[in-house]
Amino acid sequence: MTIGKIIDGKGFAAGLRARVGEGVAAFVEETGRKPGLAVVLVGEDPASAVYVRSKGKMTVEVGMESMEFRRPAGISAEELLELIDELNHDERVDGILVQLPLPAHIDERAVIAAIDPAKDVDGFHVTNAGLLATGQEALVPCTPLGCLMLLKDELGDLSGMEAVVIGRSNIVGKPMAQLLLAENCTVTIAHSRTRDIASVVHRADIVVAAVGRAEMVKGDWIRPGATVIDVGINRLADTEDGKGRLVGDVATAEALPHVRAITPVPGGVGPMTIAVLLRNTLVAAHARAGLVAPADL
Ligand SMILES: Nc1nc2c(c(=O)[nH]1)N[C@@H](CN(C=O)c1ccc(C(=O)N[C@@H](CCC(=O)O)C(=O)O)cc1)CN2
């Protein structure tokens, strides 16, 4: 039995961060200042705190200025919007990211809408979503752009391929579909109401699973030779040591004999999210300075 290739997202992300680091050094040389990334964390969610800490560490490692703003879970929406307004007007800040999810009393959409689209390094603002949807230059959400980079690295030209994106979130599913469409794929978005989802997925040369349901995509759904990108990060508590384990949205062991290549969880798409965030911050810094960003990002 042959099994497919495991795509090394962690290694690819390290390479991208190294290229960003070179781009940052050239930017500093040219402008005399470091690109700056402001990250806002509201509340005490442990996973969010870990992600924000890694973002800060990796921002500094590539030579950028990291600014972290921690606010209590009880902050009012007005106070948060005031902070964003300050960051919008701060010349040292090229990128603004508000870590999600936010506490339930804060309207995420209003917060995202308050970010200057030119500093929206998450690519969540409707201006950037609209630019992407209409094929114009945009800041693109980090996770789907990271998935696309892995796909192009594995497959080269994606033109004419059948792609099925499972999940229709604004953060992953919809922008992922737009990116694949821009690469001339034939794109289907499948979701919780899709009839006979197994046969829809079975059509695909490319499967991107972003539903947030542990191992929902079964091995025999995958067409032989398909490339599978697993965006899910689901923590299961079923280990004897009580530490739990991470699994994706795809039943990886079952899928491996069917796939050409597949991303693992952990070590696949996850590490790309932060690497692309740094890439987007460098791109935003160049645009704000009226410069052209390096082509190899
Ligand atoms: N404002 C945003 N909020 C959130 C985003 C985002 O892109 N912007 N994405 C996620 C969380 N996230 C970054 O913020 C993120 C998730 C996962 C990883 C990662 O490297 N995962 C590792 C496993 C880590 C673990 O052990 O838990 C992997 O997959 O290998 C990085 C960043 C939600 N919020």
Automatic annotation (TrEMBL):
Q: What is its EC number?
A: 1.5.1.5, 3.5.4.9
Instruction: List, for all copies, the residue spans of the domain called Tetrahydrofolate dehydrogenase/cyclohydrolase catalytic.
Output: 7-122
Q: Which InterPro entries match?
A: Aminoacid_DH-like_N_sf, NAD(P)-bd_dom_sf, THF_DH/CycHdrlase, THF_DH/CycHdrlase_cat_dom, THF_DH/CycHdrlase_CS, THF_DH/CycHdrlase_NAD-bd_dom
Report keywords, A-Z: Amino-acid biosynthesis, Histidine biosynthesis, Hydrolase, Methionine biosynthesis, Multifunctional enzyme, NADP, One-carbon metabolism, Oxidoreductase, Purine biosynthesis
A single GO BP: L-histidine biosynthetic process
Asked if the record carries the keyword Methyltransferase, the reply is: no
- Which positions bind NADP(+)? 167-169, 233
Positions of the Tetrahydrofolate dehydrogenase/cyclohydrolase NAD(P)-binding domain: 141-287
- List, alphabetically, the GO terms of the cellular component aspect: cytosol
GO MF annotations in UniProt: methenyltetrahydrofolate cyclohydrolase activity; methylenetetrahydrofolate dehydrogenase (NADP+) activity
Listed under catalytic activity are:
(6R)-5,10-methylene-5,6,7,8-tetrahydrofolate + NADP(+) = (6R)-5,10-methenyltetrahydrofolate + NADPH; (6R)-5,10-methenyltetrahydrofolate + H2O = (6R)-10-formyltetrahydrofolate + H(+)
Q: Does the keyword NADP apply?
A: yes
Transmembrane intervals: none
User: NCBIfam families per the record?
Assistant: PRK10792.1 (NF008058), PRK14186.1 (NF010783), PRK14188.1 (NF010785)
* Protein role: Catalyzes the oxidation of 5,10-methylenetetrahydrofolate to 5,10-methenyltetrahydrofolate and then the hydrolysis of 5,10-methenyltetrahydrofolate to 10-formyltetrahydrofolate.
- Subunit structure, briefly? Homodimer.
The protein in question is named Bifunctional protein FolD
